[in-house]
Design goal:
This protein is α+β, with helices and mostly antiparallel strands and 184 residues long. It is built from three helices and eleven strands, in the order βαββββαβαβββββ. Helix content is 20%, strand content 36%. The longest helix is centred in the middle third of the chain and has 16 residues.
Length: 184
């Protein structure tokens, strides 16, 4: 029967910090209610973050990279949407309008999000850093798109830059990834 149900990926808004608890709650509830055929997969998008402790030891941790969101691949029919929405900590489905129908993700977006996890796992081979401290760069992504800033520090391991940006007459430090800036 499960082969006949067309399943799509949806995004569920949740209480931040409870993503994994909500994931297992959805899985348990679907199975308990006999809807396992409808709910194929529940995913909390995470990334591997390598931290270097003060003693020099490297520790790899899984970190949620979309706090407050859980992805679910499901066939939303019958009681399934209600079942998911009734779980404590679930705010609701991502939809085009407030209270509208759940919005299915395009396959390209799903691939990009799922690929991000793989891409992060593979991007450990470190390329040369294309930036240096004191250099002025232009932000090309994020809320401060097109602002210019000066690189204050570089975190090679996380491939992040701390950029000092002039916002409303005040210098504000922003942490951005290499891909969010370009040389001027």
């Amino acid at each position: 029967m499960s082969g006949l149900l067309e399943k799509k990926w949806y995004v569920i808004k949740t209480v931040t910090g409870q993503e994994n608890k909500i994931k297992s709650h959805i899985e348990n509830e679907a199975s308990r209610s006999g809807y396992s055929d409808y709910v194929e997969e529940v995913l909390v998008p995470t990334e591997k973050v390598v931290q270097v402790r003060s003693n020099g030891k490297k520790v790899t941790k899984e970190k949620v990279y979309m706090p407050g969101y859980v992805m679910v691949k499901a066939h939303l029919a019958g009681e399934v949407p209600h079942l998911i929405k009734s779980i404590p900590g679930v705010v609701g489905f991502l939809s085009e309008s407030k209270g509208g129908d759940p919005l299915a993700l395009r396959q390209a977006d799903v691939n990009r999000m799922l690929g991000k996890v793989d891409e992060l796992a593979e991007s450990v081979e470190i390329a040369a850093i294309p930036f240096e401290v004191g250099e002025t760069v232009k932000l090309i992504d994020g809320p401060f798109n097109s602002f210019n800033g000066v690189i204050e520090s570089i975190n090679e391991e996380k491939r992040k830059l701390k950029v000092m940006v002039q916002i409303f007459e005040r210098k504000t430090p922003l942490e951005v990834s290499y891909t969010q800036v370009e040389k001027l």
